[in-house]
Structures are given as structure tokens and as C-alpha cells.
Amino acid sequence: NLTFDGDLLFIHGSIRYDGINLGTAEGFGEIVTYGSGTLMQGRVYHLTSTNNWSAAHGDNVSGQATGQLAIALGTSVADGMLLRGFARFTGNSPYTQMSQYGEIQYLSPYASNIGQFTKTRPSSSGEMVRIVGYCVNTYADILYFDPDNTFLEID
Known about the structure:
- With 155 residues, the protein is mostly beta strands.
- It contains one helix and 13 strands; from the N terminus they run E-E-E-E-E-E-E-H-E-E-E-E-E-E.
- It starts with a strand and ends with a strand.
């Protein structure tokens, strides 16, 4: 049941998602349209202190891995930034390389893979370890994007 009092929307019950009905380039969940930036659909971005979405990566501690993360749903912020939810972008290799249900996905530590994620946990000195989500469907290449609020720098 939904109740709207003019200011607030109340949801009574649960929200269910079957995990299969996403298009080949789509997201579902908590989506925002604030900030600005030049985006590539399906990539991971972090919000800078100047309200700009910049491609995220975990190769250093300069902020690209430590702030608020989101997946770009299009090439414009107006298309939406997925803060948490399900994402499927079959034209992006991180999605198609997920191989096991429940597999942890980490923010990529490689500047050459900026804005991407990987199933390989970062392990080199100076890299940041941050979980960004989990594989929930290997056949359909669906990621449950749920960035952890914690991160570790490898010494």
C-alpha cells in the first residue's frame, strides 16, 4: 500500500524485485539526479566536493574510492545515478565477466579500468579495497550495487 499525505510518500509492505526483467542497459533502485559530470553509461562514479560525478577507482586515497558512489544510468546526470539497486549493462565487460552467484565485486584499483569493478580483490600497496556489490544473476549479467561504507587502504 502507498499513502501520500502531500509531502511524504509512505510504503507499507515490501518492495520485491525478481532480478530478471532489466533491459540490456538499465538500473532499478535508489536513483538520484543531482550533481554534474561527463558520464559513461554503466560505469561507477564518486561525488566530488564540488558536486561533480567523477569516475571512481581504487588506486590511491585521493577520494576516488572513499566518497559516495553511484552507477551512471546514461551519459547525463539527468538520466540518473544509481546509489543502490540492480544494474545490467551487457555492453560493459565488468558485468559480463561476473561468473558466480553471490560473488563480491570490488571497485577496480586500476587507473586503466577507471569507473569499473572487478571480482579480484585489490592486493597491492596503496590500493583501496571497497566492495561495490554482488553478482545476483550470471546468465543475465546483473549486479546488485550496494557500495560498502567502509574501505581499506593496503599498506
